[in-house]
Amino acid sequence: MLCLRCSRGLHAFSKLPIASVSASASRTAHLIPFSTTPNRTFSSLPSLRPTLTSLRRNPTTSTTTPSIPTDPDASATTAILPLSISTHPSMAATQIRCAARNTFSPSHFVRKRRHGFLARLKSRTGRMILKRRRAKKRSSLSH
Fold first, then answer.
1. Mean pLDDT over residues 112-124, rounded?
2. Span of the secretion signal (predicted)?
3. CB atoms within 10 A of CB 120
4. Comparing C-alpha atoms, which of 118, 142, 112 is closest to residue 129?
5. Contact present, 26 and 37 (Cβ < 8 Å)
6. 3-class SS at 105?
7. What are the pLDDT digits (tens) for 123-135?
8. Is the four-CA dihedral 104, 109, 113, 118 of positive or negative sign?
């Protein structure tokens, strides 16, 4: 019996001869929700993979500047490094979790609050870290 819920089952289902497809389809018809609409993707974030459309420029730019960098190292760098999600104009009004933000301001107090000895004692995982560092005979257990 074929599992029609995963993509491998659907792929194998499409490779079967017509006679066996109709026989198995009649047995499993109650398991398949019938829908005529195509599957939708629910992602609203842009793809982070480099595409050819990201290399295109607006037609209002000057014709004296090349639209595609001539240096192969520079083009590879621009194709690999995505722009920050939080600065993207289409995402200005939405709240984005897990995005890189420039909020780092180094402070000894904040470092000790987050990674200090007392912070390690308060949580279970912190106590496990201290135990591992004691077992390794570390000279400093934490900040």
1. 94
2. none
3. 19
4. 142
5. no
6. coil
7. 999 999 999 999 9
8. positive
Task: Please write down the long-range contacts of 85-94, taking CB distance under 8 Å and 24 or more positions apart.
Answer: 85/45, 88/46, 90/46, 91/45, 94/44
Other Cβ atoms closer than 10 A to 113: 12
| Contacting residues for 116 by C-beta, under 8 A, at least 6 apart | 142, 143
Task: Determine the pLDDT at residue 57.
Answer: 53
> What mean pLDDT is reported for the chain?
69
CA distance 81 to 77: 6
Cβ proximity of 31 and 22 under 8 Å = no
- Distance CA(38)–CA(124), nearest Å, equals 48
* DSSP SS3 for 53: helix
pLDDT of residue 97: 75
Place of tokens 């194998």: 12
Domains in the chain with CATH codes: 1-36 (no CATH), 110-143 (1.10.287.3980)
For residue 135, which phi and psi values (nearest 5 degrees)? -65, -35
